[in-house]
Amino acid sequence: MPARTSKEPLSRERVLDAALAVADLDGLGTLTMRRVADELDCEAMSLYYYVKDKAGLLSALTALIVDQVIAETVADGPAEPGSPEYGGASDAQPTLASAADWRETIRNRCLGARRVMLRHPWAPPLVATESDIPPRTMIIFEALVATMIQAGFDFEIAHRAIHSLGSMIMGFTQEIFEPGSPDEGTTTDEMAQLAAAFPYLGAMAMTQPHDQTDSLSVCDTKAEFEFTLNLILDGLEHLRPAVDPHD
């Protein structure tokens, strides 16, 4: 009689890995406790020892995505401010004197976070709607503020930058409306009527097709993400006090 093989024991890590695999494969809409249990070849009731319910599972997945963003963007830890007491900008000793330094640092962090979202395209709306954001998110924003203070900004501008870069530092932007496509119910005649009613939008749509490479949605392409990000960073650079390299 062949020896009986025992299944790998359940753990919270295995449950979350299975949930991540389900969401990546079939989308967040298919994620249920039963579906995760099927992935693990166990009873759904077994999962409740590790996560309270589906809401708890989603919160745990949000924390997992945030950890991946941290690993991708600030793996070496946040930059240390010049002032140990985190005092005003006058007390800090900027070390990122050139404009290219600080902008490239923040740009790379935003794009790194976006790469995480591209691997898990279901994650942006989950992170955006989660009411209890994991405290570890603060690691990302700590790194952002530290970089700006080192570059010579004061805390007032750094605070405003967080609001401007809030969604972009998490690697995604959201459209107010997600336009559909002709395949989703808009007929050719309806498209023609829309073009006639809104000629400038119609002409733009005809001349500026969306490249869906590395896209999180119809209107969130890498090129458009970088365009918005660069506008913000270039605008902030105009507010950055000049740093005397001899100081």
Secondary structure elements and their pairing?
Elements: H1 12-26, H2 33-40, H3 54-73, H4 99-119, H5 123-129, H6 137-150, H7 155-165, H8 188-197, H9 199-207, H10 222-239
Helix pairs in contact: 1-2, 3-4, 4-10, 6-7, 7-10, 8-9
Q: How would you characterize this protein structure?
A:
This protein is 54% helix and 0% strand. By secondary structure, the protein is mainly α. Among the domains are: 73-174 and 220-247, no CATH class; 180-217, no CATH class. The protein is flat, with a radius of gyration of 23 Å.
Structural class: mainly alpha
Task: Note the total helix count.
Answer: 10
- N-to-C span: 81 Å
Task: Determine the mean pLDDT.
Answer: 77
How would you characterize the largest beta sheet?
none
Rg from alpha-carbon coordinates: 23 Å
Keyphrases for this structure?
247 residues; 54% helix; flat; disordered N terminus
Could you give a short description of this structure?
The chain is mainly α. Helices cover 54% and strands 0% of the residues.
